[in-house]
């Protein structure tokens, strides 16, 4: 399967194992017996993509079907892109090395906005035309899913269909519709119409968008019976939804190379900046026994030495401690470490620390997100300074000496006082360490603060907010540096230009597709990779296309404006987002779902009535 | 404590697994196959694992091996064989599990089959002409990162051509030094061959077939 051209390319690049597949858990089938061949494409490197849980889940679900073969393709690294161009090797799947253009369906996951240029690069390398309207039945159906589909308008022109929401049942349904169309010899139009009838499937070509003279959306019209509003797909019974137990184990080091168990989906917290916290509502947990069995199966099937309990907020699982007890029964004996990535300060209890430190003692991370209580109330991050101090005290007493604190700057209503608060918070943690008689002997403390730039995202209460300009952000960064006095504190912050472009695409509309094509033609690619990011090229391309970047990023959106994503629904009502935005202005926090339902509307996704997020959880 | 040697072939896709990655792959496979391996003691226990002689990226081999240790007196090697093969990636196939009789330090030579695609007769005479030169000078990278010029000609004595199979290729059976003092990668020879004759290394393929001691006994 590896021909001479490919051998030549593989011998000329770094880490050829990124392109050759065959890993334990990878699936091989007889192509002759397939009704549908699906290429699952991740628009970033192998290492990044192989860390992405969604891909593993869907790979296993599709390949469980006898008549479907799902293979993988990743964005080749720049050295491989160069070889492929030179040797005229079209982009291929890493299992069978089949060119993407020979698949029935090519499905991209949209993990983050800055990967959009890579999607074009992958289509281009595959020799597939960018625009959906230029592709006939001789080309694969090009579809997308993943987090960014909640506002996929900037890339809508490139896709035949875009899937909103949870893919576990929706994606096989889409494949079945394609198989059916092939069998019955349907035209592409007929196929697309059928796809638009699947829950959560958005067929961009069935909608026209009209604009006002000021550039805002006037209205979006649905054609041929396509739903006026596309509501996301959601699993009816997440609690007992099986977990993948046969990960493909990467051989070239992935970023997160370990067993992952998704303990819950969604989040009860409602932090007002967090898109994931809203688009995955309502929060649903998995059964603890089921999680424990899946973790054990997964470790035994993969040989992984670490299992991580992943979710947006793992410590909110109502049976977490019971689950940890179950896991600790076998993990140590089988040489498996336990990792809890998203612990929250406010319920970081003594026994929890004890349970995780029994296995591994490394750095601790906390995310207060804002430097003052007022601003934390604005963003609804219900963490108090007392809780930070209490958790750090606990951690230091247990031998931890490194703390990492995550913050954001540029948040709505933020003042320089709040920026200073970031430095003060870090200083308080340093002071705490030295004040403790029980601090780890003979060791110093290191507190690193990492400061991201706030990016307003669709479907959050802050979707209406403007992003700070790059100048404002830079000024705040400089001010923060001047506030830090201790050598024990290190500061890192994000590139404001990257966050700016991210905001433009997050809130963008269909007009941005031509900018993307222009930027790709001018060499933009791997924008998320700092050193490959060509900001000046982006700015030029926007200018050339006559599109104002600030219109999307730095302009507040009035409540009554029709947003580019107004025709999508994630269950959360716009009126709720407005209410939350107003509470934010008044620095009023909102209770987490498990304590009190705030009536966001997401309960309607599950048929209405009492919401599962409120129903199932424990009051802490 | 016993040292067990697992013999395997590395072919197809697996040729592109680097040595570093292969170590991790085998660690996981041992764990996965529930092999009763001995873990090193200390702060960060890990599986004791050594490889006889790393294979350069892109080459195939039917004579690779790695060693693990076990405290068990008896091992069900037949069961292990199945379990390990189930746990290893495509292209890596375990074919035997034996006690380690020799130390990897005893390896002095490696034997290769090098296949040259093309008309068998013609290829053989072109390559043979090159190999029988009095002197074949190549630049060899030293361990310290420098480059040293050396003559390959004295090391090419143990070679023969396999009888043609009529499938459009000439096959050379060649033994090269592969010890700790001198280790000659056949790629070095193929690159020199390309420079002299224009034969594309991609029209060739290399497969390591045997590891030998200083007195040409098979490494066990
Ligand atoms: S309906 Fe209530 S409990 Fe359910 S997600 Fe919305 S706010 Fe939370």
Short description:
The complex is a heterodimer of chains A (620) and B (220). Chain A is an alpha/beta fold and 620 residues long.
Explained architecture:
- The complex is a heterodimer of chains A (about 625) and B (about 220).
- Chain A has about 625 residues and is an alpha/beta fold.
- Chain A folds into 3 domains: about 5-230, 3-Layer(aba) Sandwich (Rossmann fold), CATH 3.40.50; about 260-360 and about 590-620, Transcription Regulator spoIIAA (2-Layer Sandwich), CATH 3.30.750; about 360-510 and about 545-590, Transcription Regulator spoIIAA.
- Chain A is about 35% helix and about 15% strand.
- Chain A has 21 helices and 19 strands.
- A 6-stranded mixed sheet of chain A has the order 2-1-3-4-5-6, covered by helices on one side. Chain A has a 4-stranded parallel sheet with strand order 15-16-17-18.
- In chain A, strand 16, helix 14 (about 415-435) and strand 17 form a beta-alpha-beta unit.
- In chain A, helix 1 (about 5-10) packs antiparallel against helix 4 (about 80-85), helix 3 (about 55-65) crosses helix 6 (about 165-185) and helix 5 (about 115-125) packs across helix 17 (about 510-520).
- Chain A is globular.
- The mean pLDDT of chain A is about 90.
- Chain B has about 220 residues and is of the alpha+beta class.
- Chain B has 2 domains: about 1-100, 2-Layer Sandwich (Alpha-Beta Plaits), CATH 3.30.70; about 105-215, Alpha-Beta Plaits.
- Chain B contains 4 helices and 10 strands.
- In chain B, strand 2 (about 50) and strand 3 form a beta hairpin.
- The radius of gyration of chain B is 19 Å and the shape is elongated.
- Chain B starts with a strand and ends in a 7-residue tail after the last strand.
- The relative contact order of chain B is 0.19.
- The model of chain B has no long low-confidence stretch (mean pLDDT about 90).
- The interface of A and B includes residues 2, 15 and 302 of A.
């Amino acid at each position: 399967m590896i021909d001479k051209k490919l051998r030549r390319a593989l011998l000329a690049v770094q880490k050829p194992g990124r392109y050759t597949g065959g890993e334990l858990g990878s699936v091989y089938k007889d192509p002759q017996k397939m009704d549908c061949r699906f290429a699952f494409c991740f628009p970033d490197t192998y290492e990044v993509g192989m860390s992405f849980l969604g891909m593993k889940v869907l790979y296993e679900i599709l390949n469980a079907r006898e008549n479907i073969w799902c293979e993988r393709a990743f964005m080749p690294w720049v050295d491989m892109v160069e070889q492929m161009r030179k040797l005229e090797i079209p982009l291929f799947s890493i299992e069978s090395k089949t060119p993407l253009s020979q698949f029935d369906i090519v499905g991209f996951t949209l993990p983050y906005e800055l990967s959009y240029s890579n999607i074009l690069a992958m289509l281009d390398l595959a020799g597939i035309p960018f625009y959906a309207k230029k592709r006939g039945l001789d080309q694969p159906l090009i579809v997308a899913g993943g987090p960014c589909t909640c506002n996929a308008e900037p890339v809508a022109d490139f896709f035949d269909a875009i899937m909103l929401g949870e893919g576990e049942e929706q994606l096989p349904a889409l494949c079945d519709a394609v198989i059916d169309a092939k069998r019955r010899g349907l035209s592409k139009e007929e196929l697309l119409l059928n796809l638009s009838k699947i829950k959560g499937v958005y067929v961009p070509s069935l909608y026209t968008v009209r604009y006002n003279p000021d550039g805002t959306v006037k209205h979006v019209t649905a054609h041929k019976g396509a739903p006026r509003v596309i509501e996301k797909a959601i699993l009816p019974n997440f609690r007992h939804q099986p977990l993948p137990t046969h990960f493909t184990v990467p051989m070239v080091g992935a970023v997160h190379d370990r067993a992952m168990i998704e303990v819950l989906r969604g989040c009860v917290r409602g932090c007002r900046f967090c898109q994931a916290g809203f688009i995955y509502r309502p929060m649903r947990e998995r059964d603890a026994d089921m999680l424990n069995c899946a973790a054990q199966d997964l470790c035994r099937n993969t040989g992984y030495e670490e299992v991580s309990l992943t979710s947006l907020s793992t410590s909110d699982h109502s049976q977490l401690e019971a689950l940890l007890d179950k896991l600790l029964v076998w993990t140590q004996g089988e040489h498996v470490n336990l990792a809890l990535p998203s612990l929250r300060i406010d319920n970081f209890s003594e026994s929890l620390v004890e349970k995780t430190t029994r296995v591994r003692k490394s750095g601790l991370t906390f995310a207060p997100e804002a430097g003052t209580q007022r601003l934390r109330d604005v963003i609804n991050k219900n963490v108090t300074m007392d809780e930070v101090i209490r958790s750090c005290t606990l951690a230091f007493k247990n031998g931890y000496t490194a703390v990492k604190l995550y913050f954001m700057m540029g948040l709505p209503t933020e003042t320089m006082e709040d920026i200073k608060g970031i430095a003060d918070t870090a200083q308080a943690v340093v002071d705490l360490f030295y004040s403790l008689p029980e601090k780890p002997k003979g060791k110093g403390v290191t507190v690193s603060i990492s400061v991201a730039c706030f990016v307003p995202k669709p479907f959050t209460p802050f979707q209406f907010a403007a992003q700070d300009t790059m100048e404002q952000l830079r000024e705040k960064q400089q001010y923060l540096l001047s506030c830090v006095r201790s050598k024990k504190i290190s500061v890192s912050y994000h590139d404001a230009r990257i966050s700016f472009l991210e905001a433009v695409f997050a809130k963008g509309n269909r007009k941005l597709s031509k900018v993307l094509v222009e930027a790709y033609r001018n060499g933009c690619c791997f924008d998320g990779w700092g050193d490959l990011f060509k900001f000046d090229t982006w700015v030029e391309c926007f200018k050339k296309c006559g599109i104002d970047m600030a219109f999307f990023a730095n302009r507040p959106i009035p409540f009554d404006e029709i947003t580019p994503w107004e025709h999508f629904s994630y269950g959360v009502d716009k009126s709720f987002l407005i209410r939350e935005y107003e509470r934010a202005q008044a620095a009023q926090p909102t209770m987490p779902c498990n304590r009190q339902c705030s009536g966001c509307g997401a309960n309607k996704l599950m048929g209405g009535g009492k919401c599962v997020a409120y129903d199932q959880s424990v009051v802490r | 404590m016993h040292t067990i040697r697992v013999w395997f072939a590395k072919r197809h896709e697996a040729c592109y697994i680097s040595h570093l990655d292969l170590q991790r792959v085998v660690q996981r496979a041992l764990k996965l196959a529930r092999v009763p391996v001995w873990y090193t003691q200390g702060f960060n226990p890990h599986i004791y694992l050594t490889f006889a002689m790393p294979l350069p990226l892109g080459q195939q081999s039917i004579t690779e091996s790695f060693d693990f240790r076990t405290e068990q007196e008896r091992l069900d090697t037949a069961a292990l064989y199945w379990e390990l093969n189930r746990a290893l990636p495509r292209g890596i196939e375990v074919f035997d599990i034996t006690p380690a009789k020799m130390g990897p330090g005893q390896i002095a030579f490696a034997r290769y089959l090098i296949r040259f695609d093309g008309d068998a007769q013609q290829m053989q005479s072109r390559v043979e002409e090159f190999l029988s030169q009095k002197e074949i000078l190549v630049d060899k990278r030293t361990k310290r990162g420098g480059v040293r010029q050396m003559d390959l000609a004295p090391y090419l004595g143990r070679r023969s051509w396999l009888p043609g199979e009529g499938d459009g290729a000439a096959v050379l059976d060649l033994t090269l030094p592969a010890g700790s003092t001198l280790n000659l990668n056949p790629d070095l020879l193929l690159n020199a061959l390309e420079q002299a004759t224009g034969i594309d290394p991609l029209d060739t393929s290399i497969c390591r077939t045997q590891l030998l001691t200083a007195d040409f006994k098979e490494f066990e």
